[in-house]
Amino acid sequence: MTPSFELMAPLMFAGLIVVLLIGYPVAFSLSAVGLGFGFLAIQLGYFDFVLLQALPERERTVLLLTFYDDRSADAVGLELGLSTGNVRVVRHRGIDRLRKCMNLTEVAP
Fold it and tell me: If you placed Cys at 75, which of 10, 25, 47, 71 could pair as Cys (CB 3.0 to 4.6 Å)?
């Protein structure tokens, strides 16, 4: 039985609560649940890394540094020579472009 796409968010929230109740620190719980459900979403076919190829290089780099390497907008800006505000704009545009590729334009940010 494969969970539907709409059930992923409530399941992720419930998983986070369970991990927190076990006694793990908040930062560890958030990253562990995020990585676990990210891997699950890829395995279930909800997200395909091929979609990242639809992005311009700058947007792809900002998204990978932000979400894969878990860096702040300040850290990404320092590495790429961009202002923090510019990093946020590029990140927002990249997320919007991914949503359009996945036909999820109705999902609120």
Answer: 71
Whichever domain contains 86, its CATH number is: 1.10.10.10
DSSP letter (8 states) at residue 65 = I
CA distance 14 to 22: 12
27 shares a domain with 67: no
Q: How far apart (Å, rounded) are the C-alpha atoms in residues 2 and 40?
A: 10
How far, rounded to the nearest angstrom, does the alpha carbon of residue 103 sit from its chain's CA centroid? 16
Q: Which residues contact 90 (CB under 8 A, 6 or more apart)?
A: 58, 59, 62, 82
**Residue-wise pLDDT tens digits, 42-69:** 788 777 667 777 788 899 899 888 887 8
Read off the tokens for 70: 């878990």
Q: Give the pLDDT confidence score for residue 30 in this predicted structure.
A: 84
Contact 93, 59 (CB under 8 A): yes
Domain that holds residue 68: 49-101
